[in-house]
Amino acid sequence: QVQLVESGGGLVQAGGSLRLSCAASGRMLSINTMGWYRQAPGHQRELVASITSGRSSYYADSVRGRFSISRENAKNTVYLQMNSLKPEDTAVYYCYYWDYRDRGDFGSWGQGTQVTVPS
Length: 119
Description:
Elements: E1 2-7, E2 10-11, E3 18-26, E4 33-39, E5 46-52, E6 57-59, E7 67-72, E8 77-82, E9 91-101, E10 104-109, E11 113-116
Parallel strand pairs: 2-11
Antiparallel strand pairs: 1-3, 3-8, 4-5, 4-9, 5-6, 7-8, 9-10, 9-11
């Protein structure tokens, strides 16, 4: 099992910044991917950004240039720096972990943290 604990959500005015953190613990493999999804009310969960243990990153078009994902492998922690926040960024943000094991894909989710950007 892999446990994920998120922090850093909150309420911020449009144009402001927030940094989300996600600390992982448990039986992790050295080759893995961590990242963030988000889900707004009435919408499907969508991938925001991800980063591999080799530090290859991916960003959704909607956040590219505004958000930055990073990780500290020694701390098993991934960060999401969110700048120039917009009301449409309002959502619950979920951290996730993925690796590939003998039995196939393995994944784990955090509990979610609310980000609110009032219009």
